[in-house]
Amino acid sequence: MSAPDEFVTWLARHEHKDSVYEWVYHYHPRSDAHSIALCTSIVEDLVAASESMRLQALANSIVYGINTKHMFPNGKKKTLDLAIGTVKQVKASTRLAGIICPGEIDRVFLACEAKTVHCPNCGRLCYAVWSLALLNKLQDIRAIRSLASFR
After folding, report:
1. Can you tell me the distance from the alpha carbon of 35 to that of 139, in angstroms, rounded to the nearest whole number?
2. What is the total count of domains within the chain?
3. For residue 57, which of 23, 77, 109, 120 sits 20 to 30 Å off, Cα-Cα?
4. CA-to-CA distance for 63 and 60, rounded, in angstroms?
5. Residue 66: per-residue pLDDT
6. Is residue 150 situated within a structural domain?
7. pLDDT at 68
8. CA-CA distance, 151 to 149, in Å (whole number)?
9. What is the pLDDT of residues 37-74, one digit of tens each?
10. Per DSSP, what are the bridge partners of residue 83?
11. Among candidate residues 68, 61, 149, 147, the one with its CA nearest the CA of residue 99
12. Distance CA 93, CA 21 (A)
């Protein structure tokens, strides 16, 4: 199942129970469960689609992180919604999709921000995954530009 299909299925099944009134929501604006589910699906799609990434992941050359803290070479610290990069430390031996392990990243190859937007015009939730480059974060772009190269 592709990431968009998997995420829609997850949204339909996920429930958040209010601790005070015990109401059940499929979406809670203060929770990051939806962005974690979306990022997990994206990682699964990437390693399934890219033979190079799959081989590097199976060799423990790359790991992924969701809501992972990272310090870039310029000293800037940032929490990344989703990142894939070279291994600093493998955090768990359990592989996502049987391929890639979660871990601490040394050099970031790919980073994404997952954002949720509630559209007041249509009353729907809209999900977007933004590349750091698209967010015009020049410092991040400079740090990543010299590092990013999948072979």
Report:
1. 24
2. 1
3. 77
4. 7
5. 96
6. no
7. 95
8. 6
9. 989 999 999 999 999 999 999 999 999 999 999 998 89
10. 65, 111
11. 61
12. 39
C-alpha span between 3 and 92 (Å, rounded) = 23
Whether 59 maps to a domain, the answer reads yes
Using alpha carbons, select from 81, 80, 147, 136 the residue that is nearest to residue 108: 147
- Tokens 């990069």 — which residue? 85
What is the DSSP code string of 5-55? HHHHHHHHH--EE-TTT--EES--TT--HHHHHHHHHHHHHHHHH-HHHHH
Q: Which domain holds residue 134?
A: 3-145
pLDDT at 53: 93
Structure tokens at 127: 């999900």
76-108: pLDDT as tens digits: 999 999 999 999 999 988 999 999 999 999 999
Measure CA of the first residue to CA of the last residue in the chain; give whole Å: 26
Whether residue 17 lies inside any domain: the answer is: yes
98: left (phi over 0), alpha (psi -120 to 50) or beta: left
Give the pLDDT confidence score for residue 64 in this predicted structure.
Answer: 97
Q: Which residues pair with residue 24 across a beta bridge?
A: 17
